[in-house]
Amino acid sequence: MKVFFSGSIRGGRELLSVYQYLCTLIASLGHEVLSEHVADSELENIESLMTEQEIFARDMSLLEHSECLIAEVTIPSIGVGYEICSALQRNMPVLCLYKEGSNVSAMIQGNPRVIVQQYSAMEDLKIILASFFQHVGQKYVDNG
Prior knowledge:
By secondary structure, the chain is of the alpha/beta class. It is built from 6 helices and 5 strands. The chain has one domain (2-143): Rossmann fold (3-Layer(aba) Sandwich), CATH 3.40.50.
């Protein structure tokens, strides 16, 4: 599947290593991450050379070409929320991940169209992602 990965950029980069791990893990499971830039340690420098409009256009184009969205939502981010809403408007499957003990918005946790999974260790993420891709793949088979 073509995956749009979403994680906080301007809201804080404290989970960059988690974003990098998730992008690597998604690829290792045989899927393509279209928004790998989110896990780039140089992203803020790269985006400083872009206009706000160019960043928006890039991300919306990548989202449009994606088949699902996976978001790490531990760090609150307006941009991540916007991307989640945009994916839902396109009827894409959405998986939101957060670290145990985080205070995640009710708009995410309470949305029946969003799969929300908590993790306490990095090892949990492989099981969660494999299950999500199996679930999403089964829906495509059932609806195909």
